[in-house]
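yo, TetR/AcrR family transcriptional regulator is done. seq:
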Amino acid sequence: MSRDFQQTHENLLLCAQKHFLEYGFERASIREICKDAHVTNGAFYNHFDDKEALFGALVEPVVQEVKAIYEASVNEHMELAKTDDLKSLWKLSEETLSVIIEYIYEHFEVFRLLLMRAEGTRYSSFLDDVVCLETRVTLKFFAELKSRGIQVRELAEEEWHILLHAYFASLAEVVMHNFPKEAALRYVHTLASFFNSGWQTVLGI
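structure:
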């Protein structure tokens, strides 16, 4: 890849992020993005197949990293489920939240794209996709606890979905309302205390 090609590519991404943040995916114009980047419309297609591919190039690396952070957390939780140290679950959950907040603020504008400007793309269901994945993993986690003879109150899958959606929607608020990072990190402790107490009460742990 030539240096000029790479510079043009990066400039298109930079200008696209600005336009997507301002107008959203559906209202953003390839013509205006190209104009801002000083690139012809024809040259644009040497870099991206279409507008959604351009949006994907901005957000997909972050989506994949979120999955990696999430999978690492799931593995840690599953290992704890095989022990009697269940109190550490809530501490681990809070630590994971802090890691996620740190990552969000390293890529804050991309999370704003995912949560607020993705309508019309396959990423528009990002938050609900996270909730659905967490619901499946949570059911598996508590099945592991029950297999070890640890009694927990059973909830319907739909109940878990509602509760987990409330949890992740609360986390998304720091992005949607543009909280300063310091405030968001304080908010994590409040969020963790609130939901951890709720989980323990609901589950009877």
